[in-house]
Design brief:
The chain is of the alpha/beta class and 222 residues long. It is 42% helix and 13% strand.
C-alpha cells in the first residue's frame, strides 16, 4: 500500500478458551470410515444432549451422515430437533436461538458464519475431520496440478483446507466472553495419525480431555 513505518503485529483474541471451553476427544469410537461410526456418534450425542439439556450443535462432513443421524434422533430427542434442509438456514438459526434448548444438525454452510451467543449453545460436536471428498472435480484438478509440480496434494491442498474448516467449526462454540462450552471431535485420527498434531495446533488453546466424567461435570456447571 506504500505505507512507511507501519506498525504490525498479532494480538490475542478476547476469549479465554482455557477457562471457557473444554475439548473432548472420545475414546472407543469406531474409525471414521467404519459403517457404524455415525451410529456411535449419535449414541454419544444422546448422552450429551441429556446432560446439557439440549443446546447442542452437531456438525457433519456429509449429508449422508447428517441424514442418518437425524433419522436416529427423530423421536428419541427430548428437545427441539432442527435439521438442515427442513427450513432456510437463517430460519433454523433463529429457531435455535429462540428455543434455548434445541439440537441443531448441519453440514456445509453451517461450518462457518454461525453466531449463537449465550446459553442457547453449550456443545459443538463434529463427526470427523472435514476433508474434501476425493471425487470433487475441482480438488481432482488441483491435485493433478500439484502432482505435476512435484507436490503432495494431501499435504498442500486437502490437509490445509481441512485444518481451516475444522477451526471454523470449532469457532462456533465461544462467541462472547461469557460463553462456556464443550467442543467434541469424534475422530480418532487426531491422535493416531501424524497429521493430527497439525489440527491440534490450529485450534484454540482449550483444555483437552478423554474423560467423559470431566465433560459431564463441566456441562453441569454451564
Amino acid at each position: 500500500l506504500g505505507l512507511e513505518d507501519a506498525c504490525s503485529g498479532i494480538w490475542p483474541g478476547p476469549f479465554n478458551y482455557a477457562e471457557q471451553a473444554l475439548f473432548y476427544l472420545p475414546e472407543g469410537l469406531p474409525e471414521p470410515g467404519d459403517s457404524d461410526h455415525t451410529a456411535s456418534v449419535v449414541e454419544l450425542a444422546e448422552k450429551l444432549i441429556k446432560i446439557s439439556r439440549g443446546r447442542v450443535f452437531m456438525l457433519f462432513t456429509s449429508y449422508r451422515a447428517l441424514n442418518e443421524a437425524a433419522s436416529m434422533l427423530e423421536g428419541r430427542c427430548d428437545y427441539p430437533l432442527l435439521v438442515q434442509g427442513e427450513a432456510p438456514r437463517h430460519v433454523l438459526l433463529e429457531r435455535f436461538r429462540d428455543a434455548g434448548d434445541a439440537v441443531l444438525l448441519g453440514t456445509g454452510s453451517f461450518w462457518e458464519g454461525v453466531d449463537v451467543k449465550g446459553d442457547a449453545l453449550t456443545v459443538v460436536l463434529i463427526d470427523k475431520f472435514p476433508f474434501a471428498v476425493p471425487d470433487d472435480p475441482v480438488l481432482q484438478a488441483r491435485s493433478k496440478a500439484a502432482r505435476s509440480a512435484g507436490l503432495n496434494p494431501f499435504m498442500t491442498l486437502q490437509l490445509p483446507q481441512a485444518v481451516v474448516a475444522l477451526r471454523q467449526g470449532a469457532g462456533r462454540l465461544i462467541r462472547s466472553v461469557d460463553d462456556q462450552g464443550v467442543f467434541i471431535l469424534c475422530d480418532s485420527r487426531l491422535v493416531s495419525k501424524s497429521y493430527g498434531k497439525i489440527f491440534t495446533s490450529s485450534l484454540p488453546a482449550m483444555k483437552r480431555t478423554r474423560d467423559f466424567a470431566e465433560v459431564s461435570a463441566f456441562l453441569e456447571r454451564s
